[in-house]
Write a structure and sequence with these properties.
The protein is of the alpha+beta class. It is built from five helices and twelve strands. The chain has a ten-stranded antiparallel beta sheet with strand order 4-1-3-2-8-11-7-12-5-6. A two-stranded antiparallel sheet has the order 9-10. Pfam families: P-II.
């Protein structure tokens, strides 16, 4: 059974497709792109309104056996860009659910009391996923707008790829509730088809609630 890693890259806006294209040619099955904002490297530049930039944040679930080829492909694809063009890093994933099928990754042996469940679905279905999670004991969650990554097989309109709009739902749950929450989300009909969504878990270290006690 395959284990998985979450591969994250941060690059200038509109460069994300270049990275995902290289990654998919090397074995990655796709990814999700978020839009972020880079900040100035000094307070002086920030006061002048300089140094800020729009970023693409690319998140890809990659099987362990193709992780190194995918990383090498991304590095090669950006080798001619300017210095400090972007960042690339990976982190552990201990469970992955795709198209209603559940796969265990590396078991969380760190004894964490909390898990971060990330659910990526087509736009409009995050509320359904959150409702399913609550039925299994989850509290609240946070939704982030995102977009998918284009493939040659994607639908085309006037010669252009139609990249599906996505929603990313972030839920922190007690580790003892992780499996029940995933099972509840998996039961949704909107996640039963291949490519309709993905969910994965990772340990949430030192989780703390902020504000008045």
């Amino acid at each position: 059974m395959s284990s998985y890693r979450l591969l994250v890259s941060i690059v200038p806006h509109d460069k994300g497709e270049k990275l995902t294209r290289a990654a998919m040619e090397s074995g990655c099955r796709g990814g999700t792109v978020l839009m972020g904002r880079g900040l100035a490297k000094s307070n002086f530049m920030a006061v002048l309104g300089l140094g800020e930039s729009t970023k693409d944040i690319i998140m890809m679930i990659v099987e362990e056996e193709v992780l190194q080829p995918v990383k090498n492909a991304i590095i090669a694809a950006t080798s001619h860009e300017k210095k400090n063009f972007g960042e690339l890093f990976c982190t552990d994933v201990d469970a992955v659910m795709k198209g209603g099928n559940f796969s265990e990754g590396e078991e969380n042996m760190s004894g964490n009391k909390n898990e971060l469940i990330t659910v990526i679905v087509n736009r409009g279905y995050a509320d359904d996923a959150m409702a399913a999670a609550r039925r299994a004991g989850a509290g609240g969650g946070t939704v982030v707008n995102a977009r998918g990554t284009a493939r040659e097989t994607d639908e085309r309109f006037f010669g252009m790829h139609i990249v599906p709009e996505k929603e990313m739902l972030l839920i922190v749950v007690d580790a003892s509730k992780k499996q029940a929450v995933l099972d509840s989300i998996r039961s949704l009909s909107c996640l039963s088809q291949p490519g309709s969504g993905i969910a994965f878990c990772s340990p949430a270290d030192e989780f703390t609630l902020l504000g008045k006690k």
